[in-house]
Write a structure and sequence with these properties.
Chains A, B, C: Substrate binds at residue 204. Chain A has 277 residues and is an alpha/beta fold. The first copy, chain A, has helices at 11-24, 37-47, 60-64, 79-95, 110-120, 131-140, 157-162, 205-217, 222-241, 247-260, 263-269, and strands at residues 27-31, 50-52, 69-73, 99-102, 126-130, 169-173, 177-183, 186-193, 271-275. The first copy, chain A, is globular and about 40 Å long.
């Protein structure tokens, strides 16, 4: 796997990544919270990957050496799980397993903010959060940005770009997702349009996007993979919204849609635009 | 927020509470069990509130100071989580954040019964349980009732009334829900009719009612808010039953219905009756 | 409850077991993982049983003495939960409560493999896993088989038969399920055909089958009960597949189907065959 993208991520590169995902069925190791563990696993199974929640410190490092990708999600941490985060992230970094940091609540909550700072030393392959979380994580890396209150994902782009010092790619999710990474040596930013306003009304969809990102990092470079995960989500959520009567029926319809979306659907429907600063 | 109701809770006061819920989108902090964490969060999002599961002792007190309402649910406690219960309940009481105790399994299980007794010292704003649990909790408060085996929610009304010494309002849920609280200085009892027999066939619906109660306590006094949560549940469950083929499809249909129910639906359809002892 | 089957388990014995399940509504105690806790409980409620997740070491032994059946699932263990596993399994064995071991990940993961070896000393009433897990567990019992890589459930039949030294019945689940047990003193093997390829695309269905097995062990001998659980699953999953548009909508449809399947449906549709080695 090259560590930077050859071309700016696009609908075409997302389609190719989905083809590879479906062919190789990557195994994700998720260390995640009690709210998302079930739905996140169903998202991975539906999309075309598999998942194992191995979140204890006795086995986390071992498994991070054999998984295709690792998700570390700070949603409902315990001391026990925090020890596993450290083991998994360190091992993933050492062995070259791609890993995703999902810094849920970082910035707003003191203990997990400290956990995130420690995890950053293991250089996540990608970081996925909302705008506020990305801004907060950027403040931890010594870039001196502090914890901005970034209401909009677009506002977090400078923070995301700053995080390319420690991560291969970074996304700030929102109604429009912003994803930054490197094409060759040059930092670039793209936005992923589309999606559904029902998506944020179902819990664990953000966490699931982090998990799906870990799956895509097993089959593509960080920037290309992170964009593909967001594109897969956006296209599937539009399809699901057509088959839903509200947030309750959207949740299973979204899983159906993640499963039914094809690479050609991404080619046709993914809306990915390069953002020139 | 006044601490007692101005009038006996009714369909009208429930409708007004729902209007305020939808306008203010209260943030609930849930400390809950591994069975309910996902569904309960989706219930809050669907109904018009938001939720953060902050259940570790490092952050629970901090967050109880900023949340709109707190749920402490004893479903699957760990030692780690029990320390967070204590932190959250104490802080909520000290800072005036309304908090709900859901005493899952209290009476029948020894350790959590002791946990509940300790939590009662922090004077929950409301307590929600089934009849047996409410009777058991009343036995903890020194009223000398012991652990009755209250098969029917109606049988728990004396226990619920006794608990008004420590809580602002108390409900015993069942096919018919009984809710007690104060109007001015006078204890009153109402029953909430309706609902669906599919509701108890979906796990975590009771826990979700506790969480929704915490959301309503952020926008109404304890008695009015607790009744509104039960009325919202009853009306939504009737609607959901019309769109379900069994308990499996009822679960997402219930979320859709919680989202679609309007204040006027509560005005028209909520069946709340004052019970004169 | 006799400890061995009077006749080879069949569609008829499964139908009778389902009748007893619906009449008696057994209470299962589940010690399970954060991925499956919600869905597994909904499976039990839909099928006709009830569930309590009592997985802390302060209460696990107490409850194992009063539950109808106990599930110990090794999916996402913590040190705290592992202590509860030991308490529940030991007490279930001592008091004669049937208990099921679901050895998730055993063989592939070092710590839980050691946990499983300790739990085997409390002689599970039944063991349910996939082929690899059953082969791995057999390697723990001193039979000297080691950890085979059994890709197919059929390949795990010799391992399952070896485990009859410590367990009343054993199943290896897959596209075709193999279940072994004793009829009188003689070991026998049956296979349960049918099912849906959507079933493994929904997480927690395997764990839920373990939980449903614990419910059936409360109303039948180990071999008969374990086969009935698999037959109930297979018939319901076929029905659910007809009402699904993908893995997302399959999940609630499967719960509906578990609830709607009748004993006569099992008589007509369950496909259970004796395997002569």
């Amino acid at each position: 796997m090259t560590s930077t993208a050859a071309v700016t991520p696009s609908a075409e590169t997302s389609a190719v990544a989905l083809e590879r995902l479906r062919e190789t069925v990557p195994l994700v190791q998720s260390l995640t919270n009690i709210v998302s563990a079930n739905y996140l696993t169903n998202v991975l199974l539906a999309a075309g990957a598999t998942n194992a929640v191995i979140d204890n410190p006795h086995e986390a490092a071992f498994f991070a050496g054999i998984a295709g990708g690792v998700l570390v999600n700070l949603g409902t941490p315990t001391d026990f799980q925090a020890a596993a985060f450290e083991e998994a992230a360190r091992t993933a970094h050492e062995k070259g397993t791609p890993w995703v940091l999902d810094p849920v609540g970082v910035g707003g909550l003191p203990w997990r903010t400290k956990l995130a700072a420690e995890l950053l030393t293991h250089r996540p392959t990608a970081i996925r959060g909302n705008g506020s979380e990305i801004a907060a994580v950027a403040g931890l890396g010594g870039e001196g940005r502090g914890v901005d209150s970034a209401a909009d994902a677009a506002d977090a782009v400078p923070a995301a770009l700053a995080l390319l010092d420690v991560a291969g790619a970074v996304s700030a999710s929102g109604p429009v997702d912003y994803v930054v990474g490197r094409v060759g040596d040059a930092p670039q930013t793209v936005r992923v349009l589309g999606g559904s306003d029902l998506l944020p009304r179902v819990t664990a969809t953000g966490c699931s996007l982090g998990a799906l990102s870990a799956a895509y990092l097993a089959v593509a470079d960080p920037f290309t993979g992170l964009v593909a995960a967001h594109a897969h989500f956006a296209v599937a959520s539009e399809l699901a919204a057509q088959n839903s009567a509200g947030p309750g029926t959207f949740a299973p319809a979204f899983l159906d849609a993640l499963a039914s979306v094809t690479p050609d659907d991404l080619r046709r429907s993914a809306r990915i635009e390069r953002v020139i600063a």
